[in-house]
Amino acid sequence: MLRQSQYELVIKTGNRAFYEITGQVEALVHQTGLRTGLATMHIQHTSASLLIQENADQEVRRDLERFFARLVPVGDPLFRHTAEGDDDMPAHIRTALTAVNLSIPIIDGNLALGTWQGIYLWEHRTQAHSRHVLVHLLGE
Amino acid sequence: MLRQSQYELVIKTGNRAFYEITGQVEALVHQTGLRTGLATMHIQHTSASLLIQENADQEVRRDLERFFARLVPVGDPLFRHTAEGDDDMPAHIRTALTAVNLSIPIIDGNLALGTWQGIYLWEHRTQAHSRHVLVHLLGE
Amino acid sequence: MLRQSQYELVIKTGNRAFYEITGQVEALVHQTGLRTGLATMHIQHTSASLLIQENADQEVRRDLERFFARLVPVGDPLFRHTAEGDDDMPAHIRTALTAVNLSIPIIDGNLALGTWQGIYLWEHRTQAHSRHVLVHLLGE
């Protein structure tokens, strides 16, 4: 019979960077004992994203950061919401351009990620934050 | 025991703008009486998005609009699909760059949004439309 | 009573293009006999996306391709991850800008897509690949 569990991960970030959370989400799946189902993640913020990206060459993530930094420049005179720092509005836009939810099937008791897929929290602010990620696990 | 409910919201839009639907989705969650679960939304269109963004300073949403209007210009000579108006192809691209689905856990009978998160329908066309958002609620 | 099923679709791609999978996903929904529920898709790659877009005028998809090709240029000197070809890093970025998951309600035994919505696998690499899409079906 189908059942569900919910968890909250708290991730301490230091600066604009990728923080891999694959292991933490997988540990929750193992804890539930679910063999088949669906894992859904939601980040409770508007200036950090959840992203599935390549977990092999870290240059991929550096190039992603370089591209997004150029696409959404800090200090762009277009932005009027500047009271929280000149990296705040770019962080909102980078979040809108990426994702705050992910849904990954559970197969044989594990997250059914592709060979090169890792789950990352992408911190878009330049200072340290405490980020909350909710994890909903469904299955049997 | 887990159960599900489905609903349809019809949102009348006036022009390119953000329309907050947090309260309408939350009212549906309350109507079901679900205490723990997952709310999934799907917008049945290809020229309007669902977006979670900051619900405090509305300048954030104005800056989002300014950024996307600059990134995907109306009247860009690159576009050949122009029969439905010069705002139509930019609307499709803005939708591809953002999201048509959202999934938010339900905790203690409420949508587990972060403090500053609101759910918005982002109308990308410049004229009025009637937009349909499906809401799937799962839980117990 | 709620139940779930899981499937894997293998899609052979030839080059950078859109491959419609609406019919294949719908066939799986019909196979389960579910009348009401939720279909969730996950693509197990970091250089191809899942996208819901207009299924009528194919010029829309050509314009999407033209826009993304200009936004994320192949051969951009910004990129250092070039060992797998100069189309690889653009493919990762295009994937980050779009989606790897989709969730669509099931109503009356069918995917509840809008009139103009089709589900596409968007291949971002310029050579042929074999792409795996997982489909999780939940409902009753």
Question: Could you name the key traits of this structure?
Answer:
3-stranded antiparallel sheet, 3 helices, homotrimer, 5-stranded antiparallel sheet, about 25% helix, about 140 residues
Strand order of the largest sheet of chain A: 1-8-3-5-6
Assembly state: homotrimer
Overall mean pLDDT score of chain A? Answer: 97
* Biggest sheet architecture of chain A: 5 strands, antiparallel
Fraction of residues in helix of chain A: 10-25%
DSSP summary: helix tally of chain A = 3
Bulk shape of chain A: elongated
N to C succession of SSEs of chain A: EEHEEHHEEEE
Q: Largest interface: which pair?
A: A-B, 33 and 37 residues
What share of residues are in beta strands of chain A?
35-45%
Helix and strand content put the structural class of chain A at: alpha+beta
What is the end-to-end distance of chain A?
Answer: 6 Å
The Rg value of chain A, from CA coordinates, equals 16 Å
Low-confidence segments of chain A, ≥5 residues, pLDDT <50?
none
Tell me the total number of β-strands of chain A: 8
Describe it for me?
3 copies of one chain form a homotrimer. The first copy, chain A, is of the alpha+beta class and 140 residues long. Chain A has 3 helices and 8 strands, in the order E-E-H-E-E-H-H-E-E-E-E. In chain A, the strands form 2 sheets. Chain A has a 5-stranded antiparallel beta sheet, covered by helices on one side. A 3-stranded antiparallel beta sheet of chain A has the order 2-7-4. In chain A, a hairpin with a 2-residue loop joins strand 5 and strand 6. The radius of gyration of chain A is 16 Å and the shape is elongated. Chain A starts with a strand and ends with a strand. The model of chain A has no long low-confidence stretch (mean pLDDT 97). At the B-C interface, strand 1, strand 3, helix 3 and strand 8 of B face strand 4, helix 2 and strand 5 of C.
